[in-house]
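[retry 2/3] Beta-galactosidase: previous attempt timed out, resubmitting with same input.
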Amino acid sequence: MSLDLDAPAVTPTPESDPRRTTSWLPGRADIRYGGDYNPEQWPREVWLEDIALMKQAGINLVSVGIFSWALLEPREGEYDFTFLDDILGLLHDAGIDVDLATPTTVPPAWFWSAYPDSHPVTREGLTLGRGSRGMVSPSSPDYRRAATAITEKLAERYGRHPAVVLWHVHNEYGAPISDDYGVHSVRAFRAWLQTRYGTLDALNAAWGTLFWGQTYGEWTDIDAPRVSATVVNQTQRLDFARFTSDALLACYVAERDVIKRHAPHLPVTTNFMSTNCPSIDYWKWAREVDVVANDHYLAAERHDNHVLLAMDADLNRSLAGGAPWMLMEHSTSAVNWQPRNIAKRPGELARNSTTHLARGADAILFFQFRASRYGAEKFHSAMLPHAGTSSRIWREVVEYGAELGRLAAVRGSRVEARVAILWDVESFWAHDLEWRPSVELDHRERIVAFYTALWNLGVTVDFRHPHDDLSGYDLVLAPSQYIVDAETSANLTSFVRSGGRFVASYFSGVVDENDAVPAGGAPGGLREVLGLSVPEFLPLYAEQIVTLDSGASGTGWSDDIVLEGAEAVARYTSGPAVGGPAVTRNRLGDGTAWYVSTRLDGADLTAFVRGVLDEAGVDVPADRVEGLEVVVRHGDDAEFTFFVNHSDADADVRVDAGVELLGGEAVDGPLTVPAGGVRVVRSPRG
Ligand code: GAL
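[retry 2/3] Beta-galactosidase: success.
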């Protein structure tokens, strides 16, 4: 196979709809349940026991072969498929479907001996060694050739295998590392830049290379933005981040296209880490997968980790354009890679899984089926722990499998949201670079804060790219929209003019797509929509609290605001902007835009968001019970209301006439959701 690494890193597919999922897994109509399965770590007699236990737990899908390259191709060009033939046959005979992986996240030892320059190099210049996983230069031609070769062999052999219902390319692209500063990446970066800019003049202008004397006269003088004496050109950093996401995507696309030649009837995917992989632009990637699949692990020590889980699930649904998606991995209990790996408490497995399901997942899978006895993950939980079938975890796994069986009717139903939060990874990349006006600025922090306020109010949220059509939403929030390019500016302005409600938080509209400050400064492309300008940022001292005449208080940040049509909804009563506007509202066309110039938190932020929801006409559930998560999935003729009780107290709610699916009982009016428990009510649509 000939490779052209000088070609653009990825072929754009402009005709494809960024919010589409082309297919679901063929076969069964129920919710998919299962996990990663690594039988190669066990003797064959254990496989037979595993399969019997999978049947007991209601498992209908397992991901196989993710780390098997060394077994399948023991020497370059020599293949041995005995183990896969055997296990796929056994699984199929048992009626368990297979999500077959390409094993390209871990090249075998022979690969490193033959192609040592495929090792990635870190920004600091360290060449990473072998003996781990996920550590290869995405731009290495030898890696691309070897990866597509093993993929070709697998797809030829198993493309029509009756067990296989889905292809799983690689594993978690971008983790544990993404960017590579080695020779192959430098060469591919230059080619990517040539495609983006065409001429060096255009590149020099976009990168602002007149600053600090960086003008380039030859493409070959351009390097990856490795560590230097001090801050490196920030547009170069941003472009390198864009390039890295594209280079990894090109690896996925290359393998996917090989599979599609042999198995055009089957969906192909790769597992995302949607809110947790800062190096991948998943909006772009979502166009290239047939079904969105995601891995999610709780931040074990955070008491609000169920809110972050909900946010992650909402982003996946949004990446899937509202279509059903797969939870490809999560954990039954503790992971092994966080500082303190807090075990899940009884019932937490069901609550976590049900939140994903409630927010649109139609497949609930875990890492992994049987706990490893050796290797780096021997202390990670599994569906079948070391303690075996007498364990609490196994009991909960079996119980949850049975519960999913009772929820089959949920398959294919959809979540509807009237509120969207902008999610833009390019803003994330650029926002969090060095030498920003304050270390208190943190792209993700504001998004989590606004999402949490909405979660606390019981409002379901979609995420959207700032270029997306937003007309279906009553309210759009931009908690951290650092980059505002011309398209975003026009999109948001027209959204508000035609009646939309919009909220921007501070440090939004600060730069254009080249990380350059627009004429007139902040809020750049948001100036018309917000009806104000910000002549000076006024970051606060570490412990400083500023007060507002609304009774709220803020930390971290404030702005000197000049009103240009907007009105002040709240003014500062202390701090460097005392007397000036703190929160503003601008009427534009038929819509309204708010600006929040300080870090509101907790009850203050919730109260602000609540006020905006009221003005936008978005219903906030009146009788909301604290800690009770309520999400509705809409089917063709039924609605499924999911109740997940995260609190220690029983929650009494009122429901429409219907059936509680887990208990199978008719309900009409009062329903108690036990402390830590889950209920799902099916009622007629309407
Ligand atoms: C995921 C990875 C799995 C496993 C898991 C442990 O990121 O895809 O292979 O390592 O983490 O939590």
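[retry 2/3] Beta-galactosidase: The longest helix spans residues 234-262.
[retry 2/3] clearing retry counter.
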